[in-house]
Amino acid sequence: MIEPSTQSAPVRSLPRWSLRNPLFTPAGRRLSLGLGLIGIGKPWGHSDDTVPSEKQVRELLETAFTLGIRYLDTAPSYGVSEQRLSEFLSTLTPAKRASLTLATKFGEHWNPDRQEPFVEHSYDILARSLDGSVKRLGHIDLLQLHKTTPEVLRSRDVERAFLYARSLGISNLGASVSDLDSAELALSLHGVSVLQFPLNPASQQFVETARRATESGILVVTNRPFGMGGLLYAEPPLTHQAAFEFLIRQPFDGVVLTGTKSIRHLHENWAAFNAV
Ligand SMILES: NC(=O)c1ccc[n+]([C@@H]2O[C@H](COP(=O)([O-])OP(=O)(O)OC[C@H]3O[C@@H](n4cnc5c(N)ncnc54)[C@H](OP(=O)(O)O)[C@@H]3O)[C@@H](O)[C@H]2O)c1
């Protein structure tokens, strides 16, 4: 299903689901602001890692929807993130639910007793993890291999797990990467339609990957726009606007994930993203 391409990858057009409410950049790129849901499920972030209450999470997700955010990124290893997203989804009409693009991952898992994540990529645990995500979220639009390495991406277990995902109706498969070798391998595989990686002014190693992914019709999803929040407090600090200006200048079509769990910050980030 996902196998090495023998020739250069064919140019595929972006699937219609991928970019709802896109912003058209001066360079003619299409970008959407998506919401990353790590902080609603487990302690996360630079300045305040408190996990918000269920009521705060509900209000955050309602605010995101009202603003026009339609791309949500979660993972089973983000503590109770999928569960909380599931509770929010149950409040939506079928039409509103269908307007969302939901992305999750498998490969990193959550140990509720130890309250910490662990990584395992055997077929059985990947399939069980995916069953849990489907049970919580219903239809999943994109599934990314989490904690990718080249060895894992090439493994028979992952190949079987992707086939299983396809059999469940998940047609958009890909990887979340943090090293260039994994990114390179993912770009060379047929069947990869989404690639996630960090991108911000202090972490630019994936700029070329982003360009090549877009040329191949692969949806680019960037995380850590503020370096987990740390760049906003660096000396000199990065402003929200400068972070988004940097991303909007980059040569890709895709989704920029903001990782806030605060309604006030979400408003600030939405305004800053749309201002540039
Ligand atoms: N695949 C992976 O391996 C991977 C790795 C990392 C992240 N991700 C995904 O990418 C998403 C985004 O990454 P990230 O969380 O690192 O993003 P980020 O936006 O770089 O950092 C989030 C941190 O910045 C703070 N922040 C956000 N907006 C702010 C504002 N306007 N003013 C002050 N502080 C602000 C947040 O605090 P508040 O919550 O208090 O606003 C939080 O501490 C994650 O949620 C997750 O979905 C994936």
Structural topology:
Blueprint: E1 3-4, E2 23-24, E3 30-36, H1 54-67, E4 71-73, H2 81-89, H3 94-98, E5 101-106, E6 108-111, E7 116-119, H4 123-137, E8 142-145, H5 150-154, H6 156-167, E9 172-176, H7 180-188, E10 189-190, E11 192-198, H8 207-215, E12 219-223, H9 240-249, E13 254-258, H10 263-275
Parallel strand pairs: 3-4, 3-13, 4-5, 5-8, 8-9, 9-11, 11-12, 12-13
Antiparallel strand pairs: 1-10, 2-3, 6-7
Describe it for me?
Residues 5-17 have low confidence and may be disordered. The chain is an alpha/beta fold. The radius of gyration is 18 Å and the shape is globular. Helix content is 37%, strand content 20%. It is built from ten helices and 13 strands. Bound molecules: NADP nicotinamide-adenine-dinucleotide phosphate (NAP). NADP nicotinamide-adenine-dinucleotide phosphate is lined by residues 36-39, 45-48, 73, 176, 196, 223-229, 232, 240, 257-262, 265, 268-269.
